[in-house]
Write a structure and sequence with these properties.
Length: 206
């Protein structure tokens, strides 16, 4: 027969063992939960860190691209300014050469030729012809002769010196103006000369 004390001892051991098992299981569950939470936190931190790194890399790439783009744009603008400067210098040399050209006999033939060609498309009986003072005496009579062949009356006006030479034709009502000045010829050729200069500069750079 088991004594009461022994029963109590046995019962106590049984209860203790049960409680111990429950505590052990609870502790293990808590430990597993802790490890799970810890892993989730680590994964979250890794993901956050990865996103931060990615954002920083993307930002660095973006800033780098923007810096490269800015440098490229600044370089392109500098090239355009340089090309424009060289074009202006080149055209200024052309203007100087054309001023010398106005002092030659070929120049008078050129002006009369352009005037005669322009008259072919005119229907007016009266026109204004703009000439430089320096060449009026040399060209007026021949211009009048050419105009007479087309039954056109001519009144002469002064061509501004800045237009270098050539002539301008207009009707007396101000409906049209045919600019045959040498300065206008230069401006008409500006794009073509500029394009050629740009190609030359690119070939030098390459």
């Amino acid at each position: 027969m088991i004594l009461l004390e022994n029963k109590i001892t046995i019962f106590t051991h049984m209860v203790y063992a049960k409680k111990s098992e429950e505590c052990r299981k609870k502790l293990e569950d808590e430990k597993n939960l802790y490890n799970q939470k810890l892993k989730e936190k680590e994964d979250e931190l890794k993901k956050t860190a990865s996103e931060i790194v990615k954002r920083r890399v993307d930002l660095a790439n973006k800033n780098g691209y923007e810096l490269v783009s800015k440098a490229h744009e600044e370089n392109r603008i500098a090239e355009l300014f340089e090309a424009e400067r060289q074009l202006d210098q080149l055209l200024e040399k052309v203007r100087i050469r054309l001023k010398d050209y106005t002092k030659t006999e070929n120049y008078s033939e050129y002006v009369l030729g352009t005037f005669a060609k322009a008259l072919e498309d005119l229907d007016d009986d009266e026109i204004y012809v703009y000439l430089r003072d320096a060449e009026s005496d040399a060209l007026k009579d021949k211009i009048l002769e050419e105009a007479k062949r087309h039954n056109i009356s001519v009144e002469f006006k002064r061509l501004p010196e800045k237009l270098i030479g050539g002539l301008i034709i207009s009707d007396k009502n101000g409906n049209y103006e045919i600019n045959l000045s040498l300065s206008e010829k230069i401006e008409d050729s500006r794009y073509k000369i500029g394009s050629m200069l740009h190609l030359i500069m690119k070939e030098v750079e390459d």
